[in-house]
Every structure is written in C-alpha cells, then in structure tokens.
Design a protein that fits this description.
With about 750 residues, this protein is mostly helical. The protein contains 26 helices and two strands.
C-alpha cells in the first residue's frame, strides 16, 4: 500500500499514540514534567502539520488516494479517505493545533492541570482528524463522539462553579446531539443500505427519482436528526445555547480551537448530509437558509449587546456560522434550479446536458456561475473564519494573562501603546467584518452575490410561463439579502465596540490605566509569533485572491466532483466593482449606525435603558435566555420528573408481578424457626466471636468483661447488606425489563420498514 495512503490514517492515529508519552511523563517524578508535556504537544502538532501537508503534496503530484479500511464487525469498521476539501481542513486543523500549542506554552505554564489539558488536547486532535478524513458516516460519528467528550474537559478545566455549569450544558447538548445523529444513521442505513459517502449520493438520487414520497420523507427525517447533532456542534440556532458560556469558561487556546476548528466539524457534517443525502433538494436548502439567517442575525445582536470580551467573540462565531449555513443552503437551492433546468439528476450530467444542446446554454451557464459563487464562498468563509478566530481568541488570552478578566469595563484601555496587539486585532476584526482588501471581504462578496444573483434569476423566471417551480421566491431572497447585509453591519458594530474599548478609551481607574500603559512585556515571544502566524494570511487571501483564494477554493471542490463545473467562475466576478463595493459600504454604514445608536447611546449613556452604574453591561433581556428557561427547565426538571413517574409505575408493575409469582408459582417456605433479626449465619458468627472474646479474658485473667453483642451488630450489618442486594436486584430487573421493551420496539420498527 502506498505510503501516502497510509498517511491519511496515521494522521488520525499519531495524536492518540502521543497521548501515551504525555501520560508516561506525567508518572515520572520530575520538576519539569509540565514543560516536557508542553513540548510533546508542540512536537506532535508540528509533525501532524507536516503529515497533512505531505498528503496535499502527494495529491497535487497525482498519487492516488484510496480508502484505508480497518475491519470491524458487521461491516461497521473504520474507513478513511483523502480529498481536496478534507485536505484543506486537515492542514487547517494541524496548523490551528500547532499555533495554539505554542500559545499554550506560556498561557498554561502556571496552571495546575496543564498535563491533563495536553492529554485531552491530543485526544481531541486525533478525533478531529478522524472526522475530516472519515469515508463513511459511521467513522465520522465514532470520532465525533470522542471529540465531544474529550473537548468537554476543556470547558470544565477550571473546575469552578461556572465552568462546571457550562460543561454540564455542553455535555448535555453533545449527548442529545449524538443520540440524534445515531437515529439518523439507523434510518439512513435502512433506506440506502450504506453509510459510505461514495455510495450514498447515487442511492439517494435513485431513491428520490423513484417518486416515492415515503422514501423522501424518511431521508428528510434522517437529515433532520443529524442536523440536530451537527448543528449543535456548529452553534446553529436553536441548539447554540452551550456556546457562549462554554467559550467564556474554557481556556483561551481551547476556545480558539472550539471556534476555529470544532465548530467546522459540525458544518462539515451538515455539508456532507446536504450533498450526499439530500442532493439538489430545494426544501432542505430553504431550511438551512432560514436557520442560517436566524443564526447570523441573533448572534450579531447578542454580540452587540454583550459586555464581556470573550462572550462577544463567542456570539461572533455563532453569527459567522450563520453566514456559512446560508452558503450551504444556497448550494441546495441553486442545485435544485440546475436540476430542473437540465432535467438531470446528477451534477456530472449537467455538463453533458449543456454540451449536447438539450438545454439553454446561456441560462445554465449563468446558474452555474452563481452556484460556483455559493460553493466557493462557503469554503473560503470557513477558512477565513478559522484564521480570524484563532487571532482574536489568542488576543483575548493575552489580555486575560495580564488582567485576569474578560469584562469590558476592566479591560478598557489595555491595548493603548501596544502596536503589535493593535495591528493583529485590526487585521482580524476588519477581516471578519468584510472590509475590502481582506479575506472576509472575498468570501462574503461571493456569498452576497450568490444570494443577489439567485434572486435576480427567480425574478426573471417569474415572467416565464415555462419556468420550473422552485422553493424560493424573489421577495424572500430580497429579504435574505437585506438581513445578510444587516448581519454584516452587526459584525462591524461589535468589532468596533471591542476596538474602541481596547485601543481608544481609557480605564476609569487612572492607576490601572498607568499599569496597562507601562506593561511592555505583556506577551511572550512565542505567543506573539503564534498570533502573527495566523494574522499574516488575512491580507494575502484578500489582496491576492486569484493567487491564493481561488486555488484554495477550487482545490477544495475536488471532493464533490464540481471542479469542472466551476472552472473560470472567478474570472466573471469583479470584486471591486461599484456593485460589490456597495454591499460592503452598506454593512459599514449599518455597523456605524448600530454602534452609535445602541452601544454609545443606549448602553453607555443609558438614554433608552437606565444605566445607573455606568460603563458596559449586557442589555439583552434575561427572559429570552433559552438555556435557563427552556432547555434546562425542560430537560433538567420536566423530563426527569415525567420519566421518574413512568419508571416508578413500571417498577411497581414489575415488583407486583414478582410478588405474585413468589406467592403462587414459587411458594415461599418459612424457616424452621424465626429469628428476631439477621439469619443463622450472622447468629453463629456473632455467638462464636463472643465466646472467643470471653475465652481471651479468661486466659489472660483480665477483669471487666462486658458483652459486645456481636450477634446484634452482625445481624444489623447483614440486614443492611441484603437490603442493598435487593435494591440492586430490583434495579437490574427493571433495567432488563426496559431492555426487553427497547428490543421489542426495535424489532417492530425493522418489521415495518422492511
């Protein structure tokens, strides 16, 4: 087997192997074991980066990349594959772990649990690589669950009340999401007969083209179940409730990875479901589009209203995930349009239909161009958001190392007289805000143009009597475009707020401000190097779009077989035309208006809302807290209460059946004589112990003998033990009963679907 093929598996296995060395060093009695573990983490991530880059190089050289298989039971083994899209995120993952490991060397040096952090960091790295290189949904699910449980330790790392509370929410959402994904896998396998990505697409197309509404419904149900799990990890509405507090409580390097990489695993899963399970389904695309719009608007609003630096960045991540989901939704809507215009069921057939002259070449070419905008914009915005959030969360870590707080009122004025911090923050903030000549402008322009052009195509089709019926309308797409630009304005607003707080305003305490201004060695050299390494690509992707952005996007499309369809699409896009610049200008104007009206007037001056204390504060209504008043109220209170009642009823039924059986079939026999307490064994042992003690007093000629009543003590202990055994017996019987019920329901389901 070719070494390049093995590497796709070894990139997954290598971090797990390095965990052993971290554990081994932790058992060695040495003063420098924290530093040794930190260096192991840095070395492992560096080797991982080299390995992922080697895969890209091998692929560019034309070396074949086959599926690597680890055999399992019943065909449920682990399967790994390499492709362009996977390669990009494999390299990005290794790069993110490398820079955060460098940053963690100084950030975590005084932490009491740095070894545990490094251990679970490596476990999460291996699991994340397993997700991106998975060749089937079972492998993806296997590593997705490992990643969820290992990253849970990040959130609970500080072991404070708030961190444990946030970790509980994170774990609860992760478990519920994992169960939802598993349900989706069962349904998919029963309908398609496979979970491999290479085979699901063709079978799904055949199932959809058969005309059976039941089959289509089951696929939608499966996709909906998996969206719950993947959307929760991505931070999509309404399963985003874990995100803000978890991001705030986790260490800064871990938060950078949560936002930059782990959220992308959720988006990765949603994209695979969209492209392989429900290809060209406009209704599914409309669902993703609406979820994306709500997510980006809500995240932007919460970001503007937040008074915590890290929480603002958390809601910013949520908002940018909304932008990405709109791009995924646009792919489905435009694919539906292409399918109905060409009358083909597969993407590969679209090119042949156009070349053969069966369809309107100009119309399909225009739709194809817009489709390329959506696909390229989605891929690039995932990459751009990862780079930006690595910079911003590491900047937050630098602030926390000096201030020990993320509250805006306390970090006020920290960035004054710190040019390096100013430069990297401006690059990242302007990049995520979609300012021209930076990376975010390119990806947001592509997404915005796909929405606007699709709306124009719908408006043109409305006047054509022979146009196909589609899931969207021109009015709806105009509303989506307005909300897209408005959300971009919200991004500009909360990034302006953070910029002003750090670099323009002065701290209310003059002594604190003098301390901030005097702090020259505010960040170690390694931390600065890590931040600069992430910030450097931001302007290059924006300014050298044809040399950097375009090749990255097109290389990522190889996995989906779209590279031929999207050739030369960037040549038709004039990024700095007046039309495209006007979209960015609208977002900037909206952002300035929101900043001055909401932040400066409503929050700081308290014109519309009373602000007696002064300074920044969170003005979002507390009664809209979904986690506290909906999720925890339902899943932590109502559901356990209802299930507890059901369990008591079922347990009583089982106990009653057992009593009846004992009184009838298995008639209880009385003991030869009744003992007041205990049983014959406890009485015999107690009596013997008492006689031995009496004999000891007689032999040693000791006085003052008093009976210890060993019979009674042993009888009470025996009664306690047997009562516990009876409780365990009842629990086991109830568990066995529930297992039988679940098995029966499963058999009924299999009989119905088959």
């Amino acid at each position: 087997m070719d070494m390049a093929i093995r590497n796709s598996f070894w990139t997954v296995l290598f971090p797990f192997v390095m965990c052993f060395w971290v554990w081994f060093v932790s058992r060695v009695r040495t003063k420098d074991k924290k530093k040794v573990c930190a260096w192991i983490m840095i070395l492992a991530s560096a080797v991982e980066l080299v390995a992922t880059l080697s895969l890209v190089i091998c692929d560019l050289r034309g070396i074949s990349m086959d599926v690597y298989e680890i055999a399992g039971t019943g065909g449920l083994g682990l399967h790994f594959m390499y492709s362009g899209f996977r390669g990009i995120f494999g390299v990005l993952t290794a790069f993110a772990w490398f820079v955060t490991s460098l940053f963690s060397f100084d950030y975590m040096k005084n932490d009491t649990n740095v070894i545990g952090y490094d251990l679970f960091n490596l476990l999460t790295l291996g699991a994340t690589m397993g997700i991106f290189y998975a060749a089937d949904l079972f492998t993806l699910f296997f590593f997705f669950e490992i990643m969820s449980f290992t990253s849970f330790v990040w959130v609970a790392h500080r072991q404070t009340r708030d961190s444990l509370y946030a970790a509980g929410t994170y774990l609860g959402i992760a478990v519920a999401g994992g169960m939802a994904i598993l349900m989706g896998l069962f349904i998919l396998y029963s309908r398609l007969g496979t979970l491999a990505f290479d085979g699901m697409y063709d079978r799904a197309v055949m199932l959809m083209s058969s005309g059976s509404s039941a089959d289509a419904t089951w696929l939608f149900v499966a996709a909906g179940c998996m969206f719950v799990g993947f959307g929760a990890k991505a931070g999509a509405f309404p399963v985003h409730v874990w995100l803000p507090q978890s991001y705030t409580e986790a260490p800064a390097p871990a938060t950078a990875l949560l936002s930059a990489i782990l959220s992308k695993t959720g988006v990765f899963g949603i994209m695979l479901v969209t492209l392989d399970v429900l290809p060209m389904r406009g209704s599914w695309g409309m669902f993703l589009l609406m979820v994306g719009v709500v997510t980006m608007v809500l995240g932007g609003i919460r970001g503007v209203m937040s008074s915590n630096f890290k929480t603002t960045l958390a809601y910013s991540s949520m908002s940018q995930i909304g932008f990405i989901l709109t791009g995924v939704g646009m792919q489905s809507l435009l694919a539906e349009y292409l399918m109905k215009m060409t009358g083909t069921g597969q993407v590969a057939e679209l090119i042949g239909a156009v070349d053969s002259g069966y369809v309107d070449h100009e119309a399909v070419a225009e739709i194809t161009k817009v489709f390329g905008m959506a696909v390229n914009g989605t891929c690039l915005h995932m990459l751009n958001h990862s780079l930006v959030k690595l910079v911003l969360f590491m900047v937050a870590g630098v602030i926390f190392m000096q201030v020990r707080s993320y509250e805006l009122n306390q970090v006020r004025g920290f960035g004054r007289k710190k040019p390096f911090l100013l430069a990297v923050f401006v690059l990242a903030a302007a990049g995520v805000g979609g300012i021209p000549f930076l990376n975010g402008y390119v990806s947001k322009t592509l997404l915005h143009e796909s929405i606007a052009e699709y709306g124009a195509l719908l408006a043109f089709a409305e006047g054509n009597p022979g146009a196909p019926a589609l899931s969207a309308t021109p009015a709806l797409m105009r509303a989506v475009e307005v909300l897209f630009l408005f959300s971009g304005g919200l991004t500009v607003a909360y990034m302006t707020k953070l910029f002003v707080v750090l670099f323009v305003e002065k701290n209310s305490d003059k002594k604190v401000q003098e301390t901030y201004d005097a702090a020259k060695a505010y960040a170690p050299l390694g931390s600065k190097f890590a931040i600069a390494l992430c910030a450097l690509p931001i302007p290059f992707i924006g300014m050298l779009r044809n040399l950097v952005a375009q090749p990255i996007a097109e290389y990522g499309l190889v996995r989906f077989g779209l590279s031929h369809l999207l050739e030369n699409q960037h040549e038709n896009i004039h990024y700095y035309s007046l039309h495209n610049l006007s979209g960015a200008l609208v977002s900037i104007i909206v952002g300035a208006a929101v900043y001055f009206l909401v932040v400066r007037i409503m929050i700081l001056r308290g014109v519309f809302v009373k602000n007696k204390e002064g300074g920044y504060r969170d003005v979002f209504p507390s009664w809209l807290n979904l986690e506290k008043y909906v999720y925890r109220a339902v899943f932590y209170t109502a559901v356990p209460f209802v299930l507890g009642i059901i369990s008591r009823i079922l347990d009583s039924i089982v106990d009653t059946a057992v009593v009846i059986l004992r009184k009838t079939v298995y008639s209880d026999r009385a003991l030869p004589y009744e003992l007041p307490e205990g049983n014959r064994v406890t009485h015999r042992i107690g009596y013997t112990m008492e006689r031995v003690r009496l004999l000891y007093y007689a032999v040693m000629r000791k006085e003052g003998y008093e009976p210890k009543n060993y019979e009674h003590k042993l009888a009470m202990k025996g009664t306690d033990i047997f009562e516990n055994l009876r409780i365990i017996e009842r629990s086991l019987s109830f568990g066995l009963f529930m297992f039988c019920v679940g098995l029966g329901l499963t058999m009924m389901y299999l009989l119905m679907v088959n």
